[in-house]
Amino acid sequence: KAIISIEQKGYSQNSTMPIGTGPYKFVEYIKGQKIVLQKNDKYSTIADRKPTVDKIEFAIMTDENAKLMALKSGSLDIAGVTPTNASALGSGFDIVKGPQNMVQVFALNNKVKPLNNLKVRQAICYAIDKDEIIDTVVDGDGKKVESFLSPSMAAYYNNNIKAYSTDIAKAKTLLKEAGYANGFDLTVKVPSNYQTHVDTAQVIKSQLAKIGINVKIELIEWAQWLDGVYGKREYQATIIGHSGKLDPQDFLNRFSTTYAKNYFNFSNPDYDALITKGATTADQSKRSEIYKQCQQMLVDQAASVFIQDPYILYAENKRVSGLKIYPVTFLNLCDLTVK
After folding, report:
1. Contacts (Cβ under 8 Å, ≥6 apart) of 200
2. E strands present in the chain
3. DSSP helix/strand/coil, 79
4. CA–CA gap between residue 164 and residue 287 (Å, rounded)
């Protein structure tokens, strides 16, 4: 089905005064400061879809400490928070949290030495302790994953994957068989603006040291990551999070040989055939089984290390209620009520 947007002919102010048909009407946007919305009383005749909050203001803030202070002062009612700041808020707030349909991945460039060796990649998988990462980095607020899909994609997630358990002895044996008994140097490029990934890199550095892999963490700007890692594939390993989609094809297709942004450099003809079959299969149960096979294949080939779906945490002032976590980047304002 085609989705067609309706727009007034000749209208040229969508960037400053957008026209819409949603539960809220646009009022004001001040770049770098705020967006203001007003309730649309004509939105719906269905009771549970009608907005109840008259006015909503989105404050544009990037500093975590500033958000914490704004919550405590009452100038913010809802904000995304770090685990540390969530615990610092006290009893005046509810913490709403849950999986966000994201996969944090320790991405391995499958075409560079020594990561082009399957046994080396498998050794890395055996050396990684995902539970330690989750407990240390996000204070336990994460869901361990064994594939490039989040368990929040329940219809497609493979709950029966034969995965890697942490086994240092097995990892050392595989490295020796691959010709790297004394380990090797590995540079991990991490975008410096994502503290979760930076902290994860520190834990992984400690874990891989146990099997002789000497990790050098290189912090880079986001623009550098997009250009050098994601675009040009000039890296050995990196840590990043991929936001999930509602269709698994959009996620798992990233490992297909012909995908333009397959920065993993993973290439497997059997996988390509499966992912193509999944895209052309109409029966949803058969489609689900195909994608589950894809997930197992990525694990068997140690395409990368799939770590966790880190929980998203919102602090909600107790005078507000109804905030829900959805498996997409979406906030339903009609869920909210204010005392």
Report:
1. 104, 106, 133, 137, 239, 307
2. 24-30, 34-39, 55-59, 78-80, 93-98, 102-108, 142-144, 184-191, 213-220, 237-243, 304-310, 312-317, 320-321, 337-338
3. strand
4. 25
**pLDDT for res 5:** 59
Residue owning tokens 């080939």: 301
Instruction: Quickly state the pLDDT bin for 274 (edges 50, 70, 90).
Output: very high
State in Å, rounded, how far the first CA of the chain is from the last one.
Answer: 41
- Identify whether the C-beta of residue 262 lies closer than 8 Å to the C-beta of residue 255: yes
Least confident span in 51-60, 165-174, 245-254, 278-287: 245-254
What are the tens digits of pLDDT across the range 23-33?
Answer: 999 999 998 99
With residue 68 as reference, give the H or E element that holds it.
Answer: helix 64-73
**How many other C-beta atoms lie within 10 A of the C-beta of residue 287?**
20
pTM for this entry: 0.84
Pairing of strands 237-243, 55-59: unpaired
Q: Is the pLDDT of residue 2 over 70?
A: no
Can you tell me the distance from the alpha carbon of 80 to that of 31, in angstroms, rounded to the nearest whole number? 20
Radius of gyration of the chain (CA): 23
Distance separating alpha carbons of residues 65 and 73, to the nearest angstrom: 12
- Secondary structure of residue 42 in the 3-state scheme: coil
CA 112/CA 119 separation, integer angstroms: 14
pLDDT at residue 325, as a whole number? 86
**Distance between CA atoms of 94 and 84, rounded to whole angstroms?**
14
Q: What is the token pair recorded at 259? A: 């995908």
Q: Round to whole Å and give the CA distance between 129 and 207.
A: 7
Tell me whether strands 93-98 and 102-108 are parallel, antiparallel or unpaired.
Answer: unpaired
